[in-house]
Amino acid sequence: MPLISVILPAFNEEQTIADTIKDFHLALPDAEIWVINNHSVDETESIARETISSIGCKGGIINEHRPGKGNAVRRAFLNIEADVYILADADLTYPADHAHKLISPILNGDADMAVGDRHANGHYAMENKRAFHNFGNRLVRSLVNGLFNAKLYDIMSGYRALNRDFVKSYPILVEGFEIETDMTLHALDRRFRIIEIPIPYKDRPAGSFSKLNTFRDGARVINTITKILRYYRPLAFFLIAAIIFMATGFTAAIPVFEDWLREGYIHHVPLAILATGLEISAILLAAVGLILDSTTHQDKCNFERELLKNSSSYTWKK
Question: Which one of 79, 89, 235, 287 is CB 3.0 to 4.6 Å from 293, fit for a cystine?
Answer without folding.
Answer: 235
